[in-house]
Each structure stands twice: as structure tokens, then as C-alpha cells.
Amino acid sequence: MRISLSLVREVLKDALGRDRFIASFITKVKEDPSHPTAGITKDGVLHYNPTFTGQYIHSKEDLFALLFHEALHPAFSHFIHRNDDLENLACDAIINAVISTVYFCESNDGRLFERLYPAKGITALLRPESKLHDSRYRKVYATLYSRNSRSEETTAGELIQTLKILSRGKKATVKVVLLGSHGALAKDSFAMPEEIAAKIACEISVHVRQKDAGYSELLKRMLLEVLKSKASIKKVLLEKYSTRKKLDNFKRLFEEKTRSVSPVPLYPSKRDLVLLALGIYPGYFHNQTMRPSSTKRGGLAIYLDVSGSVTDALPRILGILLPLKNSIKSIFQFSNQTVEVSFADLMEGKIMTTGGTDFNCVAESILEKDLDKAVIITDGYASLNGELASKLEEQKPAILTIIVDGKESCPDLEPFGEVVPLEEVIG
Fold first, then answer.
1. pTM score, whole prediction
2. What are the phi and psi torsion angles at 401 (to 5°)?
3. How confident is the model at residue 291 (pLDDT cuts 50, 70, 90)?
């Protein structure tokens, strides 16, 4: 079937709605025999291999499965640290299951994946109607496709980790054709800009919430959990906690008062208000407004909890932090000790932890570096001893504590600043 721009937009609009950004983002369609399957560049150009599409894309439903797979893939990028075949396969298994079961009408029950992958072996996780009853992967497959799955609390991160554990001792690389852009392609011109990926993720999350997923409610929840990670921490909140003690490329916008004269009282001055109260009409009002004046470079001292209790939430946290990659050089990981790591290493999944956790090491670091402001991301299950708390009270740093998947409060850190749940600071 011949793939054109008009056909691509028609398929996406029919499946997701007429006014979808995801459809308008694709600006051009180009045959590309060098691409193994198909991929969308950062400029919105859809490259597709005509040999591949000629063999496997037989209908509009197949084309939707291919396009929607590529649209979902950036949302899973924070699960892929080494970018090896196994991690890519694990993410694709969840994506294909979502398309086949949550979007079963739009994808014709995932028939594209059935034609593309065999029904046995680890690659059978990439398709519906597989035969894995006696396989080590049967429970993972049941979580993805079984109507009687009881894994109600399973997250995408847990499922991916389970698959990696099951495959331990097996050949690390799995030679299989994966849809979309992987490996070097995913880091090159096919790497979707974060702001575009976030906008698409937001659009899909709104749409999937409206769908009746039936027995695929677990997969729907998994997808929404992953899509949430494409949101970013509100920069306006972080600006309040930027510090001159740590220089990154984080820029804070400063405003100054400015006056303008107008016959209309837009933002009248105190003098104008007094005259009006006396019954005197000024004629011209001296409006006072705030306007951007300059930006100053500063930094964010972010302390990220990497203790055992936060492990499951880390992929989501990393996804939320990802839009800050050009603004922050490093982050402080903490468990029972603090370790400064580059932002790039953190995104590659380099975690250094003792397993336990306390806020004592964070307090010691803040005091040693003489920080006036800091941000702590934690599940709140830690404590701070009285001596260090007293020293912090003397230094008076402003600390923003962001709670993830844990308690609703953090009494040990409340005296030093705002304590807010993660859900309130993303978007």
C-alpha cells in the first residue's frame, strides 16, 4: 500500500480525533530504503522502508499500529539505559500490547504484530495470540494479554525489570526487527525533541483516559503511568529555588516595574486610585506593570533519593527530570551518602546507592556547600537527627521537598520550606 502524507493524517485523525497535534506534527512522508522499518525525524518527516511496508502494511489498521508505535516510543525512553536489544524489546512488548488490546479496533487486534513476529520464544512477547504456555515468559505474557491477569499493581518499570531478570544468563542481545527508530537512529536525527514528545504524550494521555479498555485496564494504567513521566517539573516553581552557589545553565527570569500612561485605567497607580476616591478623574492613568528585564544564570542543587524504596519510581522521576538536561550539569544522589553525578550519567541509569536512606547526608552536604536553596526528591521515608536540624535552622536554607509515591508529608523537612507531592509540580 502506498503511504502518503494525506493517508497518514487521515489514519491518525480517524483513530485519535480530528484536531490532533500528533497528526499535524508529521509534515512530510519519504521513502527511505536505508531505514529498517519506519521512523519520524525531529523535523516531523516520516521515513519508511517501501520493502518493509509492502510486505507488512496491508491496511489502514496496520499503518495506525506502525505510526502509533512510533508515537509512543519516546515516552519509554527513560527505561532504556544501555539501549540494548533486550531493553528495547521490553518496552516494545508493552507498546504493542497497548496497541493490540487498548486500541484493538484501530489496530485490528494487532494483526501487524502477528505477521511480524513468531509465536514462540522471547519475541512472542511482541505480539498477541502467542504460544508461551510452557515458557519462562508465560507470566509476563499473561500480564500483557491475559483476560484473567491478577497483576493489578504491576507497573511498566516492574514488568521491564522482570523480563530482564528472566533473560539473565541468556544471550544479552536478541536479533529481531523492532518497529520504529532504535539504537543509533534513536539518538540521531530521529530523536524526537523533548517538548514535542511531551506534547504528544499529553495528547495521548487525554485520549486514552476516555477509552473503555475493558479487560486491558491494567495496560491502560501502565500507559498512563509512563505518559506521566513525559511531563516536566514546573520551571516556575524551580526558579524560586535556584542558587548562586551552584552554576549550571539554569536561567531565572527577573522582572522589573514599568510605568505607562493611558486614558484607560489598566493597572492604576496608588496616586490614581486616591484621586478617583476623591472624585477627581485624572484624565490619564499611570499604569504600573511588571515586565521581563533580564535572566541570570544560576543552578539547582537537586538531591535525588535513590534508596531501595524509591527504585520502582526512579524511571518515572528520570523521565520528569529529562527536560532539564540542558539546564543542569549534575545531580546529587543520596541514600546514606550523597554522590554527585553528571546529568548525562544519571540519564544513562548510573545509580550509586547504599540501599538505605536518611536525610542526615543531605543536611551535611547542604551545610558543607553553604547552600541557600536546595530541592529534595524523595518518598519521605527517612529521618534527620536533631543536631543537624538545628544547624540547618541556623543556616536557614530554603528547601523544596517533592514527595514521590510515598507519604503526604515529611515532618523532618517541613521546617525548611515547601513539601509538595510530585503530582502538584508537574505539567
1. 0.64
2. -105, 120
3. very low
